[in-house]
Amino acid sequence: MSASPTISWVVATTLPQLTHQAVHIWSIPLAFDSQFDASCLSSDEKKRADTLIIPQKRQLFIAGRCCLRNLLSTYLDIAPKAIQLTYDLHGKPSLQSNQKRLYFNVSHSNNLMLVALTLNHSIGIDIELKRPLDDMNLIARDILSDNERRVFQTKTNKHDWFFRIWTLKESYLKAIGTGLSISPDQIEFNLHAEIPEIIKTPDKQYTLSNWTFVPFRPTSESLATVAIPTSPITVSYFKT
Ligand SMILES: CC(C)(COP(=O)(O)OP(=O)(O)OC[C@H]1O[C@@H](n2cnc3c(N)ncnc32)[C@H](O)[C@@H]1OP(=O)(O)O)[C@@H](O)C(=O)NCCC(=O)NCCS
Question: Which of 185, 187, 183, 186 shows the shortest CA–CA distance to 227?
Fold first, then answer.
């Protein structure tokens, strides 16, 4: 696999047009002392906010949901509060009434939120801070397939490689919506291909060959991947 490119975020002054086979990724910084209050949230989101006892976590959740609702509202052209989210069996949020066939997924790393949006296809995104992991070898044993584990042992830059494959797997699990109810070691990537290619999964919903994975570096300290069960796609990166 080639190295993940560092991308340049485009400051969007007007809403970019989301076309067929396009993916928009938004980078949204969330402030702890955010100006957002819970009034833009639905009643179940308010309940969830109330369960977060640590004030910073509560504020981050409220800020994240307000920003997500604001972003979705511009794509849908309806008020943020009017947006109705529904959650599938494993907790993936999506739009309840979705005439525009707009699909999205969210990932957080500390106070940075990434939102990936597309039309017509389920989508998954994962961002991970490249942090020191004392138990990296143990986690690798749990999340890598046998073949991947063998490749991992040969890597000199294990740390970078590990987070790269982590975001590949998690973006995929988020795209299919199962999260970790499927163990990541059940999924396998072709690690010799230039472009990431999934070659094994227990999922029966999507055809393996149609997947596109786009790894990138949102910041110098993090790695991310967006996954979508279609190709070809064009990805644009925006910041607020
Ligand atoms: C969904 C999951 C896969 C990702 O969680 P995470 O890495 O902690 O968090 P992220 O910030 O990337 O994603 C969380 C967001 O994904 C969305 N999400 C929740 N459940 C989801 C699911 N089943 N599928 C897709 N998206 C989901 C939500 O929008 C959530 O944000 P919200 O709680 O503010 O609404 C979770 O099941 C999990 O437990 N992750 C543990 C991470 C891990 O150990 N990974 C192993 C490496 S492969």
Answer: 187
